[in-house]
């Protein structure tokens, strides 16, 4: 056989392995609502999260622009809650590039350890609001400028949403045979919701798009009223915005029909339920998404199909979500098997 031939069904490294994740029927959520509630298993991407897609879309765009060349020295800098940084670091490793990842020091220990493990140049900063120049996004931009490196800029770089428009959205449409009534997920950069919304609405304008929002975020208020008003706080990481709509999300506002709020307790209930009753181990943002999908399904009524995103795996949050002391300190439910 020709050693240079690519076998069908074989992915070409990390870059070829991202995407085409399965759509999983969530049995208990479906039974509780009389709807088909389906989760896109993005934790099955090679870097372990939905953010592999954003990382790849941004890096492919940088290559197309001539900012990075495969096999030649290059540096990519990004500010992230962790998962985009992991995707960027792994995708950069595959091309021989260096990655510099700026992360708030409050993010889960597991994600920080993973970034160090895969060779990212990790820069930890104190958590600051976006209005502060010490915010991790602004720090990453300054670093990129100082180093003459590529700044990924996942929040406002529209290549983020574009990759979901080109891949995730069409995959969902094909996997449901076009029989989808609603889609919901939370937003950090907004790229996932924005890109999937465009893809689905272009195929059927009646598909209902609902933004899911944790406590402490103002995006639900922005969708409903056009103003930013945040109340409470959340232990979820990488989702929600207190005072702005990132460029990826703002550009897709016309495609968003509604928003729902989900508390930490509601999100954790779904995290623990999925793990112990369906063998699906996911993080807090995925739990929030499933809780939002249940709310959307109940609003629509029985007989509808609702899709959401299972963003990443629970192992990245073991020290928080599965730490009884951490949960009790915040008045959150502790699963019986950890008591």
Automatic annotation (TrEMBL):
Keywords associated with the record: Amino-acid biosynthesis, Pyridoxal phosphate, Transferase, Transit peptide
GO molecular function: transferase activity, transferring alkyl or aryl (other than methyl) groups
Cofactor: pyridoxal 5'-phosphate
Pathway(s) annotated for this protein in UniProt: Amino-acid biosynthesis
Taxonomy, superkingdom: Bacteria
InterPro entries: Cys_Synth/Cystath_Beta-Synth, P-phosphate_BS, TrpB-like_PALP, TrpB-like_PALP_sf
Keyword Glycosyltransferase in record: no
GO biological process terms on file: cysteine biosynthetic process from serine
Transmembrane feature ranges: none
Chain ranges of the Tryptophan synthase beta chain-like PALP domain: 16-312
Protein name: Cysteine synthase A
Species whose genome carries this gene: Falsiroseomonas stagni DSM 19981
Taxon lineage: Bacteria, Pseudomonadati, Pseudomonadota, Alphaproteobacteria, Acetobacterales
